[in-house]
Amino acid sequence: MDQTELILNEIKKQVLSCDKCTLCVNRINAVPGEGSCNAAIMFVGEAPGANEDKQGRPFIGQAGKLLDKLLAMISLQREDVFITNIAKCRPPQNRVPAKEEIEACRPYLMAQISAIKPKVIVPLGSPSVKTLLGSSFTIGGVHGKLQIKEGIRYLPMYHPAAYLHKRSPDLLEAMKNDFKELKKLSSQLG
Ligand code: URA
Ligand code: SF4
Hints:
Blueprint (H helix, E strand, L loop, with lengths): L2 H14 L17 E2 L5 E5 L4 H6 L6 H12 L8 E4 L13 H18 L3 E4 L2 H8 L5 H4 L4 E3 L2 E3 L5 H7 L2 H20 L2
Parallel strand pairs: 2-3, 2-4
Antiparallel strand pairs: 1-3, 5-6
Helix pairs in contact: 1-4, 7-8
Uracil binds next to helix 3.
């Protein structure tokens, strides 16, 4: 096992027994995230939903299926990337995680980023964009546009659940274009 895998396993262990915020009360399973330890691309969603909570794995419901399809469009499988969330436990009724929950959980995400050192991080949806880039950033303003903060590259994208909610063809088109941008960027980065 290499060093990164050891660190990720340690983070996972801590997340699975974490009680640093009240989301621990109603969870079935905490969802640390999964994927390649050497991933060049890391996706960061919002928080687990009902399916994820049941199985302890990220993006395995309808939003996850769409994410898998968009990945396939650029010849990637989920095993090639790393997928996680800003909050590792499911908020009741799938509400947006509260500020204090996001802050309580942030050290796990930061530790995952430091261990994996991805070439690009893809924040999915508004809460993830604001958590990773700052509260003044909007998903509509920055999706598909490379951002660099403290030496880390970010390519924000709309959350797949936004399309499932709105069913807007324009939104799907924007998401496909952003994935093509991701492919272009990752081939440039080698
Ligand atoms: N939506 C998210 O933001 N994360 C998941 O893991 C599943 C759905
Ligand atoms: Fe801990 Fe994060 Fe779960 Fe809150 S959401 S209990 S901080 S793992």
